Amino acid sequence: MGIVGLVWRFFKAFLLTKAGAAVRILALEHQLMILQRSVKRPKLHRRDRMLWAWLSRLWPDWRSALMIVQPATVVAWHQKGFRLYWRWKSRRKLGRPKVEADVRELIRRMSKENPTWGAPRIMSELLLLGHKVAESTVAKYMVRQRKPPSQTWRTFLENHVKEIAAVDFFTVPSVSFRVLYVFLVLRHDRRRIAHFNITAHPTARWAGQQIVNAFPHDEAPRFLLRDRDGIYGKDFSDRVKGIGIEEVLSAPRSPWQNPYVERLIGSIRRECLEHVIVLNEDHLRRILTEYLAYYHDARAHLSLERNSPVPRSAQLPSEGKVVAKSYLGGLHHLYTRAA
């Protein structure tokens, strides 16, 4: 076979291959037209979008091959990929270090517990605790106060607890239905009952004398907290003022403003008087005297770090076996260790 035959065979094979490719392209385009008629919006995956976004950058005639999407859609994919690329590239930003959660909580705690503190004061405390935080960061995480800074009632009472006493009356019916009035004087510092007395006919003069009896030797507190009961008259106020005590009156019908003595009265009722029948005034005096001995020397108070008004020291098991001392006929007990 000569050179002409070889050229003809090559040209014939090229034409057949070209025709086959054209037929194949025609078949594929027909199938795409059917797909476009049957599927309104084809479902594409992320890798499909990435492929066409990549082709649009490398192939100048990429628009001519699009059949199922519009060229504007491919452009939008490319723009979105550009944004995602720069977001990934700039993910490590320089700036302020992240404030740890425990530091943020500590800032909020300090601002709540100290309403008069500002950002510089809290920042100083944090530095002394080993936390290096900017003042602007402290100001950002501080708890905002709705009202001007002011100490709470709890703070006020704790600051003056040694200078505060509270008084109140409560009634006890006897077996003959006679009403007896019990007067209590409570020191706030160790919940110690400075004085109590009982009468069937309370008067302002009698109540004023009880205050004198409670603080005989320059032991008077600075403040005396009481309610607005009519039993406290001018004689009572004059006697209290005469020994240098300032009266603090609670709001009308607000027993929660005199909480310690109200809680004491509730304890006396629940732990003592609800379990006995009072015969007369002398009987009630003996009962309360014994209960108050238990209250001062044995009864543990949560507000006194689970100790009694007269502090008790912890005893180790090596100090001996546990023995019990009964009060009020066995209604309450004091447990100690005996060698």
Shape: elongated
Helix content: 40-55%
* Low-confidence sequence ranges: none
CATH superfamily of the largest domain: Ribonuclease H-like superfamily/Ribonuclease H
CATH topology of the largest domain: Nucleotidyltransferase, domain 5
Approximate strand percentage: 5-15%
Specify the number of helices: 11
CATH architecture verdict of the largest domain: 2-Layer Sandwich
Average pLDDT number: 81
SSE string, helix = H, strand = E?
HHHHHHHEEEHEHEHHEE
Main structural class: alpha/beta
* Main sheet makeup: 5 strands, mixed
Q: Which value, in Å, is the CA radius of gyration?
A: 45 Å
Strand order of the largest sheet: 3-2-1-4-5
DSSP strand tally: 7
CATH class of the largest domain: Alpha Beta
- The figure for the number of domains is 3
The end-to-end distance, rounded to whole angstroms, is 130 Å
Tell me the layout of helices and strands.
Layout: H1 3-38, H2 46-58, H3 71-89, H4 101-113, H5 119-128, H6 135-141, H7 153-159, E1 164-173, E2 179-187, E3 192-199, H8 204-214, E4 223-226, H9 234-242, E5 246-249, H10 259-271, H11 281-297, E6 321-327, E7 332-338
Parallel strand pairs: 1-4, 4-5
Antiparallel strand pairs: 1-2, 2-3, 6-7
Helix pairs in contact: 2-3, 5-6, 8-9
